[in-house]
Amino acid sequence: MPGPLPRTKSNDWWNRRWAYRLVLLRELSAFAVAGYLVLLLLLVASVREGESAFEGHLDVLKHPLLWIVHALLLGLAQFHTATWFRLVPKAMPLKLGGWRVPGELLIAGVNGAWLVVSVVVLVIFLVAA
Amino acid sequence: MRPSNEPFFWAIFSAGGMIVAFLLPVLIIITGFVVPAGGVEFEQLDNVFGNPLARLIVFGVAFLGFFHAAHRIRHLLKDLGLRSIATPIAALCYLGALAGAIWAATVVI
Amino acid sequence: MTSEATATRTVTLEVFRYHPDTDTEPSYQSFEVPYREEWVVLDALNWLKDEVDGTLSYRWSCRMGVCGSCGMMVNGYPRLTCNAFLREFMPGPIRVEPLRGFPVERDMVTVLDDFMEKLTDVKPWIIRDEEQPIEEGEYRQSPSQLADFKQFSMCINCMLCYAACPVYEHEDEFIGPAALALAQRYNLDSRDEGNAQRQELIWSDEGIWDCTFIGECSTVCPKHVDPAAAIQQAKVEATNNFFISLLPFTPPGMGR
Fold first, then answer.
1. Do C203 and B10 touch (CB under 8 A)?
2. What one-character DSSP code corresponds to residue C85?
């Protein structure tokens, strides 16, 4: 008598539905994060070294391939940002006094803060410096 | 049952995920597009990164970001079926992040 | 449409079959079932059992989304078959299988022992250090205190969240979404004092830390319990506790 069928395990969960594929993409964004941090540190290192080192680095940055790489990194980083902010009210529901801040409002607030920070950083680089 | 050491890594993962979510898109736009297009000159970059606070922020983003990525990749590989070698994968990921963080420190000092 | 006109339409059901006495491998059997606008998948299965094959086995009881016993995979997705309308899947075929990630007793009947064990392991009941004497009346709770955990208390143990969880699929020891959400439900209850008793298991690697916030448990939940949120909130709490316990002193108000 064979008895009950043992539970099955398969590694194709990520390809079952779009929701899972997007989660996979969300997790893969970690590679983009690490990859971009390397590029950022290389740039900072070249600036710290002096103008000629920076000019050399700039020539590399101008290569079309690096434009494509940065476009991909931007897409994945933006996906990380969007998914990360969407999960904020789940992990950290906000209660002000007795008032439970609605999740959508919290997400909007975080996105607003993100927009302000982004503009500030842009101003620092483009105007203030 | 052994208490988990996961809170330590999860805290860094979360802090990293937050700072990366806030800063990476705009930084990529600046260093990946505006800089090569000539919108920001060497002097401006030198001014920004000459500031110790800015360099501290760069280090913070790199340190937390590398560990954030390492933690995520570690768990992704586990979820994709590599459970039997989860411990060496974890060691490899976090050591990679540590190496990245040390490099970041040498760049900003 | 008149009932006569609809009765002539049919839909194909591809049903998972497994008999523990005779089969070593599961198989799929196709049936033509009358299509009716108001029928759910469970109605089609009941029609099959009554009219075609009395040996077809599956669990069901209330047929109104309350009892949590008729969960199955419908076209690969965990659903309560009592609220999965045939019309959602037209023109078919509709594939009906037992919930993913569980051993199969027979046809769509799964073995629930693992879940039942984990459910009791998290002690999903109110624990008091000392019971209040009956003459002092009931434990009182404000609407705001109730709201803290009410969402997590709606669980009907249907196990759709387990079937949607890739982590549970791979990790036998993982306590899983529903049990962890119920643990959180009691931890957040102002009348409960059992937090410390649940911590060791909940805060272990097999508890909340195996979860990678894939989040499908919350999507499939027919009662909107949101186990994924419960687990993340427990992670935040466990992490705060971890760092506080490293301090050489106990901050005021953190005595527990």
1. no
2. B
Unique residue bearing structure tokens 């992990």: A91
Q: Could you tell me the CA-to-CA distances from A86 to A92, A104, C14, C120, C237 in Å, in that order? A: 11, 8, 38, 33, 20
Residue A83: both structure tokens together = 């998914």
For A:51-110, CB contacts with B below 8 A are 51, 54-55, 58, 61-62, 66-67, 69-71, 73-74, 77-78, 80-81, 84-85, 91
Contact B30 A122 (CB under 8 A): yes
C-beta separation of C158 from C71 below 8 A: yes
Per-residue pLDDT tens over the stretch C52-71? 999 999 999 999 999 999 99
**Interchain CB contact of B28 with A (< 8 Å):** yes
Alpha-carbon span B9 to C12, nearest angstrom: 50
Beta bridge partners, C80, equal C71
pLDDT digits (tens, 9 = 90+) for B40-86: 999 999 999 999 999 999 999 999 999 999 999 999 999 998 888 99
Can you give the pTM of this predicted structure? 0.91
Verify whether the Cβ–Cβ distance B7 to C167 is below 8 Å. no
Distance, CA of A72 to CA of A77 (rounded, Å): 9
Per CB-CB distance under 8 Å, the chain B contacts of A31 are 69, 73
A118 reaches B (C-beta below 8 A): yes
Its ipTM equals 0.94
Written as one string, the DSSP assignment of A25-84 is HHHHHHHHHHHHHHHHHHHHHHHHH-HHHHHHHHHHHTSHHHHHHHHHHHHHHHHHHHHH
